[in-house]
Each structure stands twice: as structure tokens, then as C-alpha cells.
Design a protein that fits this description.
Radius of gyration of chain B: 20 Å
Number of strands of chain B: 0
Order of helices and strands of chain B: HHHHHHHHHHHHH
Helix content of chain B: 55-70%
Strand order of the largest sheet of chain A: 2-1-3-4
Structural class of chain A: alpha/beta
Bound molecules: iron/sulfur cluster
Oligomer: heterodimer
Largest sheet of chain A: 4 strands, parallel
Order of helices and strands of chain A: EHEHHEHHEHEHHEHEHHEHH
Number of strands of chain A: 8
Strand content of chain B: under 5%
Distance between the termini of chain B: 30 Å
Distance between the termini of chain A: 34 Å
Strand content of chain A: 5-15%
Radius of gyration of chain A: 19 Å
Largest interface: A-B, 53 and 58 residues
CATH topology of the largest domain in chain A: Rossmann fold
Shape of chain B: globular
Structural class of chain B: mainly alpha
Number of helices of chain B: 13
Number of domains of chain A: 2
Number of domains of chain B: 2
């Protein structure tokens, strides 16, 4: 399996450990991820609230770059990039004045022909959970996690086409395949206030605090995420949440790829746990998932 | 605040402009309020999402475009996913923000959000990929929050979560063209990506706040 890989800005900065662990998982499973040469930012939220054409043109530019590679499908780990790339594809599949404008902007025709997948989709549906289960070396027994999907992974369904909008199961099922326990909790698709991390930090603290509280109440020891923005809001801002709401959360926010990699027997050192603000290693050690000294 | 809804506002072309601009049929909304019930940002908004829809139906263009609500929407799409009338409320919020930029109507509060968007886009236009240091620095400077996140930043560097230098972009020219042409076709007033009034408003607000604190 070979994919054109679109990391996105976050995975090259705040979420390097996501990038690294995804690559480790891919390596272990024989999935080839070839990074799109000279990819550019997908525009994220600020593009689509400022200029519609721009918000389509930027992702399409990346898809055109991918088209020039051998791979026929693009894979990304970032839920926001995934959403933007998918939205652009859906938009370009229609035919009208606006689509012609995009082609004029880019100087190339494009009709949404490059398929886009999230890495979670590749693992669960293309590689297959069954296959994955046979490859698990180290079962994550005793680990209780809350799987948190956030907004953009599954909304809207006719854009991403991945899982249920209100009650997704993909990460939960994946965690059970790995031997961990996925707790039942109602905040799976609640919003963490992603794009307001800088502008309205107070709001982010409230929303993230609620999510942490709910996960804690339902008995989760860690939250598993598939989006770099969710991770950074819940992880980097956790100390501030604690301060503002006088809480003592010590909830590691772990990428699903990191747990998959651990289960596949990848060395802990390669997975960037030291980059987390709330260190997941004590918890993993307590559960005897990792042994070596931190 | 009292509003007078007259024949004129109701007949105003606002609803038509919106329906043409984003293809959403606002007239179908029957005010069930489901969009607002699930909205994570509702507690901060001055008008709830369903109220915004109603105001559009009534042609209250100015009130809608200068509301804080449209900027506080986090584009989480909960409202769209749940609307029984299949109205894409999130897309309407998008349209309203774009329209506010075009008509240069500044919100009555939370002015740092429109400012942030523009700084973000400038950042992408210049560097191709997000350059966090530039983004945070520029935003803090122009919004008057000079020392925001100063406690987090050193940790971020130490953990190599953010880099010091921007990425060298080989597609720089293509990128510039994309921005220029999109801006032109969309009449987005791109030349004024950072209009002075917005910056001034932000800065003065911050300083007045600081002075009041001192008192
Ligand atoms: S959910 Fe839909 S129909 Fe109900 S108030 Fe909101 S926009 Fe109107
Ligand atoms: S998309 Fe905006 S208006 Fe709709 S629920 Fe989310 S924050 Fe509220």
C-alpha cells in the first residue's frame, strides 16, 4: 500500500509526536507514506471564514501536487486538514461557475479525483482491524481510555463519510482491538474550541475543562485523540484549566497512533511521549505497557 | 435594545443575497432551536444561532453582520448535523463572516477574532506553512496582548513543539498567485487584509481595560 502523505502544519510543529508515531505504525504494518513534496497549508478555519475560493484552492493545490506522484490516494492524520481536503473534493466534484473559478486560480483542471483518507480509516478499514489484531504483540491490558473524536473527523457525514456523527465507534473499536478498555462517555464529539486557542483562551479553557471533567468522571485514565488541535488544547492548556477551575487533572492526552505503535511493539523512545505536557509514561508504566526508565 | 421591523427591512434583499451566496434556504427554518441547543459557543454569543437565522429572515442585515455571534462560531458543524430542516447553519455563519469582511462591518465585540484570521492568512501567504512564532508574535503585537502565553512558550520551545525559523517555501510564487487571484475573484478587499480600524479598536480596548484595572 502506498499513499501520498499530507502531514499538515500541526504535525510539523505542535504535534510532531503524532507524525512520528504514525510513521512508525505505517512502517510496522508495511504501509508506505510518501510525503507530498512542498505541500502547503490547507488554510484551516481562517481560510474558509474569510474567502471561500481560497479555502478550496489551497487544499486543491495540495491534491494536484499529490496527483503528480505515483500514489493515487492521499492520507492525512490531522482531522482538520482531512476535513478541508474532503470538503474541497466534494466541492470540485460539482460543476459550475465556482469550480471554473478554482481551475482558473490554479491554472489546472481538477474534478475531485484524488481520494482522501484519514490515517484512522486506513488502519481500521483498509488494513483492517482483523489484520491489525493479529499483529498486536503487546496488549494494552488494564488501560481505560476515553476516545475523543472532536468535531471535524466525523462532521459532516456527507463530507467525511467516515463514521456516525453523534456516536462514532471507530477509535473505541480500535482500542478494544489493542486490548484497552474504551469507557462509555457522552462527550465524544463535543467541541474543544480549537480555533480559539489564541483568541479566546478563556472559552477554550471552559470547553476543554468540561471534556476533561467528563472523561475523569467516567473513569478514564487517558483520552485518546485523532486530531492535533484537540490534543494541544487538552494537553497544553490542561495546566491552565487546573489553575482556573482549581482542579487536579493529570490526564494524558494520547494520539491513537502512539497506542497502536506500542501495541505493535514499537519502542517507546520513538514515539515522542516526552513532548507531552502531561506525561503519559507514568500511567503506561503503571499498567505495565512500558518498562524502561523514562 | 429595541428594534423596529418595517416593511422595508423585510423586503430588503439580504435573505436573497445570502441564499444566492451560500445556497442555503433560510426560509425553511421553523425556529425549533435545536441548532442553539447543541452549540458549544452559545454561552458566549449575543444572539443564538437560531436567532441569527430569524434575523436573516427579517432582513436585519446590519445587526447580524455586527453581531459577535458570527465570529464566535467555531465551525464545529454540530448545528448543521442536527438541523431537522437540513439547513447548513455553519455554512451560513461562514457566509456571514465573509460578507462582513467584504462590507467591512466590524463586530460590536470580540474584535480580535477577525484580526486573528487575517494575520493567520497573511502568515500562510508569506510562509506557505503556518509559522507559529510569527503568528503568535504578530497577534500579540496587534491585539495589544503583548505577554499572552509567555509562560507556555518556553516549554513549547524546549519540547520542540514550535520551531524558531519558518519553512523555506519553494511554491512561493504559485502561492502568491493563489492568494491574489482568489482575493480578486472574491472581491475580498485583500489589499486591506489588516485594516487599521480593527487594530486600533483592539489596542484601545486593551489599554482602556488595563487603565481601569489600575484604578
Ligand atoms: S435547527 Fe434548523 S430549523 Fe431548527 S432553529 Fe436551527 S436552523 Fe431553524
Ligand atoms: S458551527 Fe458555529 S453555530 Fe453551529 S454549533 Fe458550532 S459553534 Fe455553534
Amino acid at each position: 500500500m502506498k499513499y501520498a502523505y499530507f502531514p499538515g502544519c500541526s504535525l510539523h510543529s505542535t504535534a510532531r509526536e503524532y507524525d512520528r508515531s504514525a510513521k512508525e505504525v505505517a512502517l510496522a504494518l508495511g504501509i508506505e507514506l510518501a510525503e507530498i513534496p512542498d505541500w502547503i497549508c490547507c488554510g484551516a478555519t481562517p481560510a474558509h471564514i474569510t474567502m471561500q475560493l481560497l479555502s478550496i484552492a489551497l487544499p486543491v493545490k495540495n491534491l494536484l501536487l499529490a496527483k503528480k506522484m505515483e500514489a493515487c490516494e492521499v492520507v492525512t492524520c490531522c482531522a482538520a486538514c482531512f476535513n478541508r481536503l474532503k470538503t474541497a473534493n466534494k466541492f470540485m466534484k460539482q460543476r459550475g461557475e465556482e469550480q471554473l473559478k478554482i481551475e482558473k486560480i490554479l491554472g489546472e483542471p481538477y474534478r475531485g479525483e484524488v481520494e482522501v483518507r484519514h490515517f484512522l480509516d486506513v488502519l481500521v478499514n483498509v488494513f483492517g482491524s482483523k489484520n491489525l489484531e493479529t499483529r498486536v504483540i503487546k496488549r494494552l491490558k488494564g488501560l481505560k481510555v476515553a476516545s475523543y473524536y472532536g468535531c471535524l473527523l466525523n462532521r459532516l457525514k456527507d463530507v467525511t463519510g467516515l463514521d456516525d456523527e453523534e456516536e462514532p465507534r471507530m477509535i473505541d473499536d480500535l482500542m478494544e482491538v489493542l486490548g484497552a478498555e474504551a469507557v462509555k462517555w457522552p462527550y465524544k464529539t463535543e467541541c474543544c474550541g480549537a480555533s480559539f486557542s489564541l483568541t479566546k483562551t478563556d472559552v477554550v479553557l471552559k470547553l476543554s475543562g468540561d471534556i476533561l471533567q467528563m472523561a475523569y468522571d467516567e473513569g478514564a485514565q487517558a483520552i485518546v485523540v485523532a486530531c492535533p488541535m484537540c490534543q494541544s488544547n487538552l494537553d497544553i492548556r490542561q495546566a491552565m484549566v487546573n489553575k482556573k477551575y482549581k482542579k487536579n487533572f493529570n490526564m494524558p492526552i494520547i494520539y491513537f497512533t502512539q497506542l497502536v505503535a506500542l501495541a505493535l511493539g514499537v519502542e517507546m523512545k520513538k514515539l515522542g511521549f516526552e513532548k507531552h505536557m502531561v506525561d503519559p509514561r507514568p500511567l503506561l508504566k503503571e499498567k505495565e505497557i512500558i518498562f524502561s526508565k523514562a | 435594545m429595541k428594534w423596529f421591523i418595517s416593511q422595508e427591512t423585510i423586503k430588503a434583499p439580504f435573505q436573497k443575497i445570502l441564499e444566492k451566496g451560500c445556497g442555503e434556504k433560510v426560509a425553511r427554518c421553523y425556529q425549533c432551536g435545536k441548532c442553539s441547543a447543541g452549540c458549544p459557543m452559545a454561552f458566549q454569543m449575543d444572539y443564538l444561532p437560531n436567532q441569527i437565522i430569524r434575523m436573516i429572515q427579517l432582513g436585519m442585515e446590519k445587526e447580524v453582520l455586527s453581531s459577535k455571534t458570527i465570529w464566535l462560531c467555531a465551525s464545529c458543524f454540530t448545528c448543521t448535523a442536527r438541523c431537522p430542516r437540513e439547513i447548513n447553519v455553519a455554512e451560513i455563519m461562514d457566509f456571514l463572516r465573509r460578507h462582513a469582511y467584504r462590507t467591512r462591518i466590524i463586530p460590536s465585540g470580540d474584535t480580535e477574532i477577525p484580526l486573528f484570521n487575517k494575520i493567520f492568512l497573511r502568515n500562510i501567504e508569506l510562509f506557505g506553512r503556518l509559522y507559529e512564532v510569527g503568528l503568535i508574535g504578530m497577534f500579540n503585537l496587534l491585539s495589544g496582548e503583548f505577554f499572552k502565553d509567555f509562560t507556555v512558550a518556553p516549554k513549547m520551545f524546549l519540547k520542540q513543539k514550535i520551531g524558531i525559523f519558518p519553512w523555506r517555501n519553494k511554491n512561493a510564487k504559485a502561492l502568491k498567485d493563489i492568494f491574489r487571484r482568489s482575493g480578486g475573484l472574491e472581491k475580498a478587499q485583500r489589499g486591506r487584509l489588516l485594516y487599521p480600524k480593527l487594530i486600533f479598536l483592539n489596542l484601545s480596548k486593551k489599554f482602556i481595560g488595563k487603565i481601569e484595572k489600575l484604578k
